[in-house]
Amino acid sequence: MHFSELGLKAEIQRAVAEQGYDTPTPIQQQAIPAVLAGHDLMASAQTGTGKTAGFTLPILHLLASGPNDRLARVAKTPRVLVLTPTRELAIQVEESVRTYGKHLPINSLAVFGGVGINPQIANLRRGIDILVATPGRLLDHVQQRTVDLSAIEIFVLDEADRMLDMGFIRDIRKIIALLPKQRQNLMFSATFSPEIRELAGGLLHQPVSVDVAPRNTAAETVTQKVIETDREKKKELLCHLFQTRGWHQVLVFARTKHGADALARTLDKAGIKSAAIHGDKSQGARTRALTDFKDGKLVALVATDIAARGIDIDALPYVINYELPNMPEDYVHRIGRTGRAGMEGEAISLVCHDERPQLKDIEKLIKRTLERVVIEGFEQSAHAIPRPAQPPRGPRKPQAGRAPAAKTAQKPGGPQQHRSGSRHR
């Protein structure tokens, strides 16, 4: 199938072609016609499947078609609301809107915490069509009466599973209560737990279901390997891998914020340009680190699980699990950062004695035994030094309320506001 067969407006097809795409991914082939037909949608899709374009492309088409064309519209209230769990994902989605809507007279804005609210208020007053937001900052705007959600025609709940993991369910219900009763609803989630299905039942009306990958399966385009070593050898082994394999763009996962900072410093000292990204970093620092990584100024980006959610990097070749996650589902999300949109990638996990239970859980979830690789000089010793027990691998405890915004506010008009130009031309 070719994008030209989906019935999208010529301006959108032109923008897609300029990005080098001609064939839609499986989720795009299924989701785009359903959204264009006005149906509610319940889509199960792993990261890297092209789901963001799967909803941004038909939404742009719908906004630019028919009697509600913005050229004939005077109202400044947003017509589309996309709710995302993290700042990084909000930025990514809004960038996708701008990329594919560049030839249309449509405005968009991403609002999230960690930056000053006043520039966002100013942009909202000028009028926008598509609003991408995190729950906490959106409710801040609602409380200050700086956003009007009464004209929302399409509501998108992106990465609903992560929303629940982060304790946003109460905020989501508050936001849904503010929306018009008559609207189109699109829900995307990597997994559909009973809690997600309950939420979908109250949100969606006779939805079209799209499932492009079996639940909790790892991307087929990612080569997965395990290097078993001792905990004390991990840092030296990681530096050795960088120096001997000529890696140039690697996303490294650490379990804690402190561990991510320490590992980034170790890599930097070894001459491997690195930065850490996690929830304690200001939004400005997180955005700079991610931009530098995408531009090739950083060789390694060391991230925690929540901070990495929503990171979308074209052709990212490698993901390294410096430490395994406690939740096996997070392993699937981690390695999904590479091997995206049909491209090949490699995921390597450094596993010590203490992490064998986590590895066993991961292999059980993905229903395969991962290939073991031995690196000479870094073999795992027969007798490991005991380590305090890890926290139980039970369900993640939801955070109370919404995530706190970082204290550091950016200057008005900075790039972190991610508002599109006055018009996409």
TrEMBL record:
Catalytic activity, EC: 3.6.4.13
Entries under Pfam families matching the protein: DEAD (PF00270), Helicase_C (PF00271)
Molecular function GO terms recorded: ATP binding; hydrolase activity; nucleic acid binding; RNA helicase activity
Region of interest (Disordered), residue spans: 381-425
Catalytically driven reaction(s): ATP + H2O = ADP + phosphate + H(+)
Keywords recorded for this protein, A-Z: ATP-binding, Cytoplasm, Helicase, Hydrolase, Nucleotide-binding
Start and end residues of each Helicase ATP-binding domain: 32-210
Domain of life: Bacteria
Positions occupied by motif Q motif: 1-29
Domain DEAD-box RNA helicase Q intervals: 1-29
Span of domain Helicase C-terminal: 221-381
Cited SUPFAM superfamilies: P-loop containing nucleoside triphosphate hydrolases
Manganese found in the keyword field: no
Entry keyword annotation includes Cytoplasm: yes
Database matches in Gene3D superfamilies: P-loop containing nucleotide triphosphate hydrolases
A cellular-component GO term for this protein: cytosol
GO biological process: response to temperature stimulus; ribosome assembly
PANTHER family, A to Z: ATP-DEPENDENT RNA HELICASE RHLE, ATP-DEPENDENT RNA HELICASE RHLE-RELATED
Family that this chain belongs to: Belongs to the DEAD box helicase family.
Protein name: DEAD-box ATP-dependent RNA helicase RhpA
Species name: Azonexus hydrophilus
